[in-house]
Amino acid sequence: MAEHTSSYRANGDNGDEGNTEGDLNAWKHRAPYKVHDSDPNFHARYEASCHCGKIRYQLSREKPLDSKYCHCTTCQKLHGAPFQWAAIFHKEDINFTHGHSDLGWYESSEKTTVHKLPCKVSCAYCRTPIMDEGRNMILLFPTLINFKSPEDRKNFDPSCHMFYTRRILDINDGKPKWSGISNDSELIEDSPEQDKKRKREEDAAEGNDKKS
Fold it and tell me: Please, which pLDDT band fits residue 184 given cuts at 50, 70 and 90?
């Protein structure tokens, strides 16, 4: 019996069709996609995979640079969920061990599947969202990580909520809640009072700087 293969063209419209050589495949040799097998400085700390297992990767950093809940409508639509849980890493912190030829891209502003930053990265087979690739950082989704202990899971605890005004449900967890991007919008709802006070002081200091 012939093996079933997906009719989806992996890697968007870049034309590589899973090949590993050529100019169109330069992305495979750059972070975050390059393989760190020969790098003695890369120490795998976590392992993660998509739903079907075609995409697998490792992380070397013990804790993300930050971790947040995002309630924007784009995240709601693309994840099919009330909000997105994302953790920020450097591109060099990740090592794809399997699935280079099974990645698909989506750039939401132009709605194109060409690898154009910033873009959404997913498994081309099971469609699991893998990460958001920015120009300098990546946003990973901790639900893909195979945590080995409660302590590992706690390393990814979100620090705040973003775009909370667009929420589908209220979450009274006492974490800071921003109306837009964190640290660049208004603190609202049940944000801790000390965070609101700190934001007022920062805004006042910024206003004084502009006057001087």
Answer: confident
- Predicted local confidence at residue 29, as pLDDT: 79
Q: What is the percent of the chain where pLDDT is above 70?
A: 79
For residues 67 and 182, what is the distance between their CA atoms, to the nearest angstrom?
11
Q: Are 33 and 14 in contact (CB under 8 A)?
A: no
User: Residue 43's closest CA among 96, 79, 93?
Assistant: 93
Q: Is 156 helix (H, G, I), strand (E, B) or coil?
A: coil
**Burial (CB count within 10 angstroms: exposed 0-12, middle 13-18, buried 19+), residue 73:** exposed
Return the number of other C-beta atoms located less than 10 Å from residue 52's C-beta. Answer: 13
- Give the C-alpha separation, 63 to 70, whole Å: 19
- What are the residue ranges of helices labelled H in the chain? 73-79, 150-154, 193-211
DSSP state of 177: B
User: How many H helices and E strands in the chain?
Assistant: 3, 10
Does this model's pTM top 0.85? My answer is no
pLDDT tens readout for residues 7-33:
334 444 333 433 444 455 677 778 898
List, in sequence order, every residue forming a beta bridge with 104; answer none if it has no partner. 122
At 54, the pLDDT band (50, 70, 90 cuts) reads very high
Residue 55: count other Cβ atoms within 10 Å of its Cβ: 27
